[in-house]
Amino acid sequence: MASCNGMSHLFLPCSLKTRPGFAKIGKREPAVGVVSAYGAGKQKWNIKAGGVAPTSEACRLHPDKFKIEYEQKIEEIRQVLKSKGEDESSESLVLVDAIQRVGLSSYYEEETQTFLQKRFVTSCASTYRYYSLRDVSLLFRLLRQHGHYISPDVFNNFKGKDGRFRRNLSQDIRGLMELYEAAQLSFQGEYILDEAASFSSQLLHEYCLADVDDNLSRMVIGRLRYPYHKTIARLTRKDFLQDVEGINGWGKTLRELALMDLRKGQSVYQGELAQVSKWWNELGLAQKLKLVRNQPPKWYTWSMSILIDDFSLSPQRVALTKSVTFIYLIDDIFDVVGTLDELTIFTEAVNKWDYAAVDMLPDYMKMCHRALLETTNDIGREIYKRHGHNPIDSLKNSWADLCNAYLVEAKRFASGVSPTADMHLENGKVSTGVYVVLVHLFFLLGLGRTNGGTINLPDISQLLSGVATILRLCNDLGGAKDGNEDGTDGSYIDLYMKDHPGLSVAQARERTVDIIASQWKSLNKECFRLNQYFSASSFINASLNLARIVPLMYDYDDDQRLPVLEEYVKFTLFNQTT
Hints:
By secondary structure, the chain is mainly alpha-helical. It has 25 helices and no strands. It is globular and about 75 Å long. It comes from Sesamum radiatum (Black benniseed). Keywords: Lyase, Magnesium, Metal-binding.
């Protein structure tokens, strides 16, 4: 069953999975989360388009003045970064990190790379014996983030004679936070970083349990839940902005610049959301397909989050949102209204990419099929105009693969036959919609041209698989947590328990968490490898952003809402707070 599959159920609780005993031949029951989107249950998404954010007024009404002040502050921070970059002080590392955390790193890529290249050369001859835990951890993370390999052996200086991290580090809370952050960039087999993550996490949790009510405790909780490498800085910078002003002499300027950048972003994003809403209304599907979701702000949130690091990518965000929209529509058709025979014909029609292949289907399916083909063909033509090649064959194949995966789940649901956990995961990676989104994004960013030395789709297969696996398993973890406590919900956890009789739900969940952690390590290594393709840097970061938003997708409260994600999106889009 395609219900609750990754992208198309972002802000809704996934409490109903494929249950073999509930199958009805030819027709499938709607998922609870989908029903709530139609109004039959409580709406879990509370963000609406409309209106200009108050803080965007200066940007909108006085664009020239705003632009001058904005560029002046960008230059002020640039000069500070160049100045600090001349030395090897801790403050220079803190500055680079702060620039990243307030979402401004794209403005200072050249200066940051120059600075880190110097530090990398120096690091090759250093033992770090006299460096603090905080400085070593921060330097390690920054170097790895920017493609410089630094050995995890640098952390051996913080171990005792017994080979374990020294317990007296428990008083160095800021150092432990940085150690935990550094461990998020580990590769497979780097056991010292596994130890670092476990050690720092334990001591930081102990610190929080000590009932210390201060800003440091708040920061610790935030770092543990959302470490920098696994979050989207421009989306989550709200948390860091309240801390940055007190940092040295440049903190106030950096905070002011970040707030101006926020206002500029709101103006850009609201304009794009208006374009998406206009396109959706003109498409007319909302009026004809009454049982599918009508939520342009939610669809746009995906594209905004994935491509949030570059304001100039407006055409790409709008085009990508159109693709996300059809993932939702097709998922609803498979989940809610289509019979198995109809879904089979629909899938064949998408595979053929032929307007005439849907003559035997209901009108709503014909409309969706036609709109999918027209929209995707338009995207292919726009890519050709912009980059000189039309990747329509690859785009078509991604949609065919998605519908094929949905149909596999529909047939399993109808037959009542459960797959193995591995079979579920392999097909489920495709039915998340990740491949559709990232294949479209790959070409929208101008990649995949046939001239020598460029990156092509086969080069990113492992990257796509890793992101899809993380999304699929996090979805299943969230569904299992919110669904049946005995694990019988058709998720990976449920099926893994069936494959391994005698295993408890807790053990199966632990296994799933371990796979997700392992996939992140593989992603880290794969991104490191792909750094050889300089042209792919935007795509690599966008792919990571897709994986990064997953934890926020499943951070439910007791009312099955997503308050943290909702707060971030409201702040980023409209400067609203709940």
